[in-house]
Amino acid sequence: MKDLILVTGGTGYIGSHTAVELIEAGYEVVIVDNLSNSEATVVDGIEAITGVRPALEVCDCTDYAAMKAVFDKYGRIKAAIHFAAYKAVGESVEKPLAYYQNNFLSLITVMRLLAEAKSEGFVFSSSCTVYGQPDVLPVTENAPVKQAMSPYGNTKQVGEEIIRDATSAGLPYQSIILRYFNPIGAHPSAEIGELPLGVPQNLLPFVTQTAAGIREKLRVFGDDYNTPDGSCVRDYIHVVDLAKAHVVAVRRLLEKKATQDVEVFNLGTGRGLSVLEIIRTFEKVTGVKLNYEIVGRRAGDIEQVWANPEHANKVLGWTAESSVEETLLSAWKWQQKLGGKA
Ligand code: UD1
Question: How far apart (Å, rounded) are the C-alpha atoms in residues 137 and 147?
Fold first, then answer.
């Protein structure tokens, strides 16, 4: 019988790509999602790629009774990957209580139920946002966690602390915290990808929507940073590479190979790219000219951050393999499939 993995937020952007990789690695997947920022039809895309339709339970991870019913229904959930969370930095500043309520309560509920079910592993979606502007680049997992710049960022920092505190007090399972850098791109089949609601806040969906003529102009937030070309630098990682790291993390937990009860890994490429480099590379690989203008800095943006991924490379045996060119092409292919649908 296949090991059953719970994927919360599994119809979302990173969750859906991870569901595909889990299925392709031989796991059985049950997705829990409240569809607050995704569509049930994403499961069709997962099925089209893998030939397997994962179970979808439409339910809110903050609802203990509903989640307990899911655990009871399946009975043998071996591990969970917890993606379900609100993730918009700007919105979190406007609605901090909604962010704290949703992101903390869902985390606590899933962790409690995993303990009650005597499951064997927990994987948490964290973010490089916990490092703020690092003093040393590339940033390692040992870099200090800086004061969060938004309630969203704080939910990641405190979420990590919740996992550590609960683990110290005794849990039947070990946890792996994955700190993502900037996930972009889509599955090469273009069956699944990012589906931003409304006006995208993140760079890549704004780039592809501008290229598709849905947005008139891309605004580049600042060209006066202390970086080679003045625009901000990030570590953009193909979402499929990111998804594969989750499979490795789950396998490590189920095979009891983790050497600490809570392990932390950076998931990045180790390569920093500026906003202007992304624009130029996108234009080169797609042949589409982007209409853009340089505007003032965006409040809360950090100047530059990229990962030192050696810990994940060595310990997990995982490396981000995709080139930025193929990653950007996959994002464009997905946007072309979506067409004018913003
Ligand atoms: C932010 C968060 C990250 C979170 C992610 C998901 C921080 C430091 N980072 O990443 O933790 O997981 O959002 O929402 O809080 N840009 C433009 N024009 C645009 C959009 C973006 O120039 O229209 C630039 C930004 O200034 C930035 C880069 O593109 O330099 C990437 O921005 P974005 O995609 O929003 O991601 P982050 O802000 O890095």
Answer: 18
CB-defined site of ligand 1, < 6 Å: 87-89, 127, 129, 153, 182, 201-203, 206, 218-221, 232, 234, 275, 298, 301-302
Query: Would you state the pLDDT for residue 98?
Result: 98
* Amino acid letter, 224: D
152 is catalytic: yes
DSSP assignment letter at 38: S
This prediction has a pTM of 0.97
Q: Whose CA is nearest to atom 16 of ligand 1?
A: 203
Q: Which residue has the tokens 């003093």?
A: 135
How does residue 223 score in pLDDT terms, banded at 50, 70 and 90? very high
Q: What is the tens place of the pLDDT at every residue in 158-200?
A: 999 999 999 999 999 999 999 999 999 999 999 999 999 899 9
Can you tell me which atom of ligand 1 is nearest the CA of 234?
39
Give the number of C-alpha atoms closer than 13 A to the C-alpha of residue 80, restricted to the C-beta side.
29
> What is the arithmetic mean of pLDDT over 293-308?
96
